[in-house]
Amino acid sequence: MTGQLTNTRRYPRLVLGGRDLTVEVVFVTLVVLLVAVAASTSDTFLTQTNLTNLLKQMVTTGLLAFGMLVVILTGGIDLSVGSVVAFSGILSAGLVSGLPLPVAIVAGLAAGIVFGLINGTLVARFGLAPFVVTLAALTTIRGLAFVYSEVPISPENESFLTLGSAMVGPIPLSTVIMLAVFLVGGVFLTRTPAGRSIVAIGGNAETVRLAGINVRKHVILAYAISGACAGLAGVILASRVGIAQPSVGVAFELDAIAACVIGGASLAGGRGSAKATFGGVLVLVLINNLLNLYGVQSFWQQVLKGLIIIAVILVQRTNRART
Amino acid sequence: MNAKKLGILLVAGALAAGLNACSSASEAPTGTTGATASGDGSYTIGVANFTLGGPYFSGMDKAIAAQAKKKGNVEIISTDANGDAAKLASNVEDLLSKNVDAVIISGGPLESAPAALNSIKTAGKPVVLVDRKFQTGEYTSWIGPDNKAIGVQDGQFLAEKLPDGGKVAIIKGGPADNSIGLARTDGVKSVLGSAKGITLVEAPDFGNWGSDGGLTVMESLLATNPDLAAVFCENDAMCLGAQRAIADAGKAKQIIIAGVDGQAEALKAILDGTNYVVTGLNDADIIGSLGLDRAVEILGGAQVEKDTVVPSPQVTKDNAAKYLDPNGGF
């Protein structure tokens, strides 16, 4: 009887050619569809300028989304990433005036890691809710960015700008860095003991603990990775814009979370992949780019973006909710 | 023992605070009756900032505090509403309950703040608006820029620079009901809309008043309109981002840039003779210090002008050096 009950509560399934749609198929179809529509209706889409724009504009969201994914996999959330972007950016832009470029970049990255470690420690050691911890971090770190400099800093060292504007062949250097993060990160999550532990913790932390794995250490590691990604994103963004602002990055965490969720990651933890999250980033950036090319007004863009996110998630849910 | 001591201390403190409040309250009327007393009476002035998240607004707050320090007899209590209108109202109530003599409101993009203005009116205190003039509600005095005039100025300069016409892009800060930005854009449009040979292209997406937003919006604009001749942004921060995007696209020789505000980096770019050619000075330091002066004048019983427009001089390569203050806050 009960079995039948659960059966009747099944969500409708989308079937294509006799097979259920998997997350990957949905993505490839969606991206191909978006690109096809774009290419056929807009003369601008396939121009080199626009494609380079696309590649550049996915960097920040991409980096933040990967870090967010790692935290979400543990069943947590990191709301502080936007503030870390601001702090790391303005710190490295400020330091580059007196210190060598690599030191300034590493300092920005290190600041992100330190914030991540603090977040992770508060969550793992003190058992505080990730939402609360990182919400507090969001305001604290934003405040610190303003404490460091209330006014935007334009770095005096010209070489600071190369990170954001250099090209590797036809691809921006920053995009290459982001792709590398996803590649290495994907391998880390699926092939290494530490990465697999992080995924497993989100599935069932107690089981992982009983298996003799240090849960706390891995949770802290997850937040540190998110902090590192946000720090890197902050440095790259400051370098790209040429000016670091303490006010930058407000609500960046939302796009990062959206990318993860579109990529099928479960906010309850334990499910999600680097590949699918990258798909989520692509979808978000493509939507933005397309709506801009069509000259859709900004407020309609917000409406459409929200609706598209819901639509994508609904499609995924219908195909996953089979127990 | 300790608790008792603490209790006594608290009572003493409360009494002292109460006495203090009484004395400052009794001082205010003497100040208003005799103009000569204004130099001697000390005042407490509350500053209600809608936001400090932006160099312009934090510069304004600092300028008010600096001017108060210069006066010597004015104490400032500054509050920040973090961009929340409800918080602004409760901050104003807090200030009134601290018995400030006057309130200065820096309303940012707010159209109006009825709750805040009402409670000040009920308390019978004067209120000076700086930068932002509220469309509704009673205020004692307003000091700020004429945003439309700044736009007109930029528009005229661009029209002169583009005698053969061309495409001019407009980057707006947003959101759609931000009337500061609208006034600036209206000003530009009122000149360029009718100028011969000039086509206006409005970016569909908002730049959110920051350099990063200006950069991305400009990148999209360059993809859709590679043949732009000029770009106007509703503030300098966005223009600075746009300038980076234009430089990255190798179009620095083709596209000239016009901004608003007089942010230090923009002034420097103008002075250096880059493609950043003009901005309209919207000086937070001047507006902030004039705002404090105005509040003190009112407390001293002076009859003051209700609305004062602070002129926004046009800044080009010829006069940028005059306005570029390497030590200035903004």
**Total helical segments of chain B:** 11
CATH second-level architecture of the largest domain in chain B: 3-Layer(aba) Sandwich
Order of helices and strands of chain B: HEHEHEHEEHEHEHEHEHEHEEH
What strand order characterises the main sheet of chain B? 2-1-3-4-5-11
Q: What's the main sheet of chain A like?
A: 2 strands, antiparallel
Q: What's the CATH class label of the largest domain in chain B?
A: Alpha Beta
- Strand pairing plus helix content of chain B: what structural class? alpha/beta
Number of strands of chain A: 4
CATH topology of the largest domain in chain B: Rossmann fold
Looking at how many chains there are and whether they match, the oligomeric state comes to heterodimer
Membrane topology (chain A): Multi-pass membrane protein
Protein name (chain A): Monosaccharide ABC transporter membrane protein, CUT2 family
Keywords (chain A): Cell membrane, Membrane, Transmembrane, Transmembrane helix
InterPro entries (chain A): ABC_transp_permease (IPR001851)
Question: Gist?
Answer:
In chain A, the strands form two sheets. In chain A, strands 1-2 form a two-stranded antiparallel sheet. A two-stranded antiparallel ribbon of chain A has the order 3-4. Chain A contains 14 helices and four strands. Chain A has a domain at 58-253 and 265-271.
